[in-house]
Inverse folding.
């Protein structure tokens, strides 16, 4: 357990992050960090602003439909980080983008880098939104450990677990 906590802290709490800079698009993921940053951190926006808006987040506090925000919104299928990356990669190919800044919470950064590296051939910068609180971090460690196992057994851009269809 101690080894797992140390490993999680090294990987998820202190990932390599980038400084926001000019990109063809800024992609706000549907995570709580990405959602909050969209509303609270307009300084992170560069190029076209793209937002992941799975149907499952419509009940979140502060949620605003894309029409009200005047943004490019994607509805990923499946409603997973993998689905978000695939949806963005298709849009980026259509629009011939070669760079993106992805915004999400800190613990999400290592997985985003892996998935974007598999699916998007351009330059990827990842900006982290801080997470706070012991329980938040413990939950993130547990969730991200499982999610990284999934990444390990689905090595391609569009690979799925058998029950994901």
């Amino acid at each position: 357990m101690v080894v797992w906590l140390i490993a999680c802290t090294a990987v998820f709490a202190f990932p390599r992050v980038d400084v926001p800079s000019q990109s063809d698009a800024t992609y706000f993921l549907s995570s709580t960090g990405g959602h909050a940053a969209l509303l609270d951190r307009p300084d992170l926006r560069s190029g076209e602003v793209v937002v992941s808006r799975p149907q499952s987040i419509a009940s979140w506090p502060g949620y605003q439909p894309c029409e009200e925000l005047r943004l490019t919104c994607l509805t990923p299928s499946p409603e997973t980080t993998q689905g978000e990356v695939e949806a963005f990669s298709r849009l980026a190919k259509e629009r011939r983008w070669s760079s993106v800044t992805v915004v999400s919470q800190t613990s999400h950064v290592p997985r985003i880098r892996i998935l974007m590296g598999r699916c998007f051939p351009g330059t990827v910068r990842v900006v982290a939104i801080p997470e706070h609180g012991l329980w938040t971090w413990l939950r993130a460690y547990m969730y991200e450990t499982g999610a990284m196992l999934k990444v390990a057994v689905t090595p391609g851009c569009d690979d799925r677990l058998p029950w994901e269809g």
About this structure: The chain has a mean pLDDT of 87.
